[in-house]
């Protein structure tokens, strides 16, 4: 049975929409089915649906719970008859692959961030798709995140590292175009704004959220906001509100921020039992987001309704590290975990919304 449409009860600041544009994609044909894929003995670190094909996703993995190599890239395609996800390609790398993302301007190009301080570019249409076509240098310790800029803003890679730096790369050379020192400790994630060119946000081990406008100043963040006394592990921008983002970390708390007035959080959610590893806003509902945690769960929230979860999905048996929404099948979501599995499903709370 389809879920009832939510009743909004929490007033929001001006400029934050509560209704998304009319949907341009339909629900998954496999509603009610949890699809599973085993990554052998490899532990899932990150995964992303292809922005071009809702029946393809990429997953990056590592060995020994992310402590030692090797790492692998898994390319999975869905069988349109059975709905099962099947391995199309596996590429090996010498060290753990801690993050992965697709290029938004080419359906065959993706990038990984490795534990040896390198960033790899893979081209699935090349003669040797299991070998990186390009590697970016510039770090001697683990990379923590990597993200291509939205295609409307060009083709710039944003990479965060354990050395406290956030770097920008393009395909013209192996070295960073720009290096920004964001912290004296680990930067766990950096994310481009989907709304404003040359703007990104990052979070660090010292519990600080920073927002950088590279056109204004490459040497100093425009917003430097202590958010937590604990490590901040994750950040994501809202898809329909220019100034809203969420942070999460080892204190088990997810906080929302309106950058027009960040003297206090837009919302504070204390729902997880252990550190929150990633947070991801829905591309379909302006105030809905998903979070995954070391408590082995995926949780769905709508901060406009409540600070309590809409649903807890506890179908993993180890730390959950990766989460992503499918841009082609409404409300479908994928996760990967240290239990060697990738799981794809549509949360029951979002069916029919």
From TrEMBL:
SMART domains registered for this protein in UniProt: WD40 (SM00320)
Key word Ion transport present: no
GO CC list: cytosol; peroxisomal matrix
Main location: cytoplasm
Family annotation (Gene3D superfamilies): YVTN repeat-like/Quinoprotein amine dehydrogenase (2.130.10.10)
Molecular function GO terms recorded: peroxisome matrix targeting signal-2 binding
One GO process term, biological-process aspect: protein import into peroxisome matrix
Keywords for the protein's UniProt record, in alphabetical order: Cytoplasm, Peroxisome, Protein transport, Receptor, Repeat, Transport, WD repeat
Source taxon at top rank: Eukaryota
Residues in EIPR1-like beta-propeller domain copies: 186-301
Intracellular or extracellular location(s): Cytoplasm, Cytosol; Peroxisome matrix
Family designation: Belongs to the WD repeat peroxin-7 family.
Protein name, per record: Peroxin-7
Species whose genome carries this gene: Folsomia candida (Springtail)
